[in-house]
Fold:
Amino acid sequence: MLSFILRRLGTMALTMLCLTLIVFFLINLGPNLKKLAISQTEMHTSAEQLESWLVNHGYRQNFFVRYGQWLGILPKQPITDPATGKPAQRFSFCNDPVVPTFSGVLQGDFGCSTKFKTTVGAKLFPALGATGLLMFWVLAVMVPISLLIGILAGMREGSRTDRTLSVASIASTATPEYVSGVIFTVIFASWLGWLNGSAASASQGLTFYNFTLPVITLAIYGIGYIARMTRASMVEVMTQQYIRTARLKGLSFGSVVVKHALRNALIAPFTVIMLQFPWLLTGVVIVEVMFRYQGFGYTLVEAAGNNDIDLLLGCSLVSVFIVLITQLISDVGYAFLNPRIRVQ
Amino acid sequence: MQTEYINAFDIVVGVLWRFWPVWIALILVMGVSFAYKKRLGLYGQLFDSGVGIAGVFICLFWLFTAIFASTISPFDPLAQVSIMKDALPGAVEPGSKLIYYFGGDKLARDVFSRMVYGSQIVLIIAPAATGFALMVGITLGLPAGYYGGRIDTLLSFLANLVLAFPVILLFYLLVTPGIMDTPIPYAMAGLFFLFPIIFFSVLFWTRFKNRPDRLYILLGITLVLGGWIYVGLVFDRDPLHIVHIDPNQLNIFVAVVFASSPGVFRIVRGLTMDIKTRDYVAAAQTRGESPWYIMLWEILPNARGPLIVDACLRIGYTTILLGTLGYFGLGLAPESPDWGTAIKDASRLLRSFIHPALPPTIALMSFVLGLNLLADSLREQSMKD
Structure:
């Protein structure tokens, strides 16, 4: 088991290395750098000045050297101040070093956000905290509801409850966040006036009034999928021999479901819930933009829209890490939950 | 000047009336399919359940809407009639006396016509991108599952690499205006669009290599037709000027294929690993058939059930992806009538007007719902066999 986890962690590190290299390459394409230089210098700068800004701020160094600096295996060089000829800080708002130092992701320095004029860490981690809060409430709503729907539907396959709930779950998987968000806002904010259509005030304090719409919008898309997986797993368990044995020895239907079926039927949904995280990430971006909630998704969109290289790299690193770690947890957890599975 | 309005009942009747070519086509197709459902195989079996009928109905409805879009919509989707800015549903346009059934948006365009034309964009890109993703996934998934070993390790690692990207980040990196100045989208298009040609060539070669008369005709058709479309799509140099795609649509197309082919790859690989242990594969191996013959003519036909179901779901998912792209204003032109862009424009103004937001949201939702119902029904029918 331990060697399995270690091997998986090794693959994970390799994957992250490859992915960050790809992201680094795509962000540093010529047109993107030009866009960054334009946004960082004053209006109407000539092409030569843009180029000299890029050279000056170290963006024209060798690609792999810069990747190594970002990673922290090569020392970050200070820039030369064109006026005095002395070494100076690259970006003064980030306390960049004036002497060559190893300061990259491996040392815990995620770089410098050109859009927000602060370090990436100072911007990214509060945003992650805000999104973590959102995620917590989404999971707290989504998991119990979807498991309940799935179990109720799969308990008696083909019954009227099953058909109704199945169609309802299909409908919920057909409703992406930007659709349900608009519909919920129209109903609950514009029409009934019960809830707030914007979660911008949620960073000061969460209330039912400003936080319900983002949470249910995010939850509704996942509910259908998890419910369907739970239903399929429940249906399979209910046809097993040990369920028939339990019924034949005279146990009531309710007690068979709760004591015998449920425990075995919940193994598969665990994996599914874990693998929902990558989907939730996309949903988080949509919902945070739609409801103006200052979290991770909002930061990602701002970083991508303004070509904020280091911030976008930080965002990709975090999201890729989340995806890979949830995959690992789902595999390891599955092996723990299901004694029939043995990892070689 | 006071704008005239028609009442809600007239709006409903009017909208239903505008869809007349769709109703006629639907009645014809559904009627014929229902009459001959016994002879239509898997498609005919769909008409045995309510869910299946609903799925077929919704999908055909949007298909015919896309085909007859110019007849159905009263206005040009980009035309602006300034007096109709933010008009409420049912407003009568004073010039032509035609009606803005679902009102006007903030740029005074007819919401109804835009919804109808939006279906065209979705119904062209989503199935086509899914088709290409299937080709790529099948061509790579079959050898990975069949041979296993090093080729499987390498391809699976690459697939997992793409799958580990959050979709939204992938699109922010791949579908930006800046990337159009680099050769990356064209290189990717050149790579992906090669797969259908390879697929069909190998398909015909393995089957007919001992029958040159059939082989040369089929290979010739594949290469000429495939090459023609390839040149038109990738290099935009079609000698006959028929095949043409906008650079930004090509970019979206490539990004969507790139994002969804690893999913197909994983499914095909899993199915292949399962099916290759069957007796008929062993029989073919004993006969001395070549590996690619076994993959394409023994394994693939037997994997078609799950693949068809997956294709249905995947078209729906691609529709959602296209909507996401539109919602973030990536790729598609800002005035494009597709549903995602329309939802983005309308959702910014929900506080003042809600009517431009509802038609595109309901359209997108119903189309994806139709595809999901279809997939569910197909899955149930194929499980019965």
